[in-house]
Amino acid sequence: MDDLGSLGSGEKAALVILAFLQADCRTSAYGEELLSLGKDFNLTRDVHSPGDLLEDGDLETDGHVTSCITAALSDMQPSVELQWPRNHAEAADLQQIAEGLREIADQLERRVVAEATLNLSRNISASPSEEWKDHLAWEVDRVMKSGVGLEHLPQERVIAALTLTLVKGVCEQTPRLLRTLFNAVLQYFNPETAR
Asked: Distance from first CA to last CA of the chain, Å, rounded?
């Protein structure tokens, strides 16, 4: 799916996908799978490593202020974060893409996602993982053909948001499917980047 060409490399696509999937994580098992997946793809880093914190609470080069507040809040923050590109403009662009996809997904969820998620979950549970990408593509195509009422938005973004919403819905119910579906999405978006 070359429609997300602005993402360029597979690593950038994986980063946007993971950022999308991490938003509003509702279950701890799903959250643990996301953290593990991020580590395996080298898309996360430990935010509490000694090299990231400065003793005097100064401003770091990435714009974060460190102080005793960081330590006090550490139990409320995840222990890892996504590794966005060092180029702040590029990182902001990728974050904006992920946020835009989440906004579209919110509109989709209110309209059609529950039924499509159930269909996808049923189809992948009855078939080998090599066919999951095809099931995912078929369900996205079916929903898009039925009309989602978002014709005013760029359709490649609607397709991406729908795809990621379906994957998130299935994986929130069955977290162990995350890795295989993540790879299916990478292959669906850009076949030469799948791992």
From this structure: 16
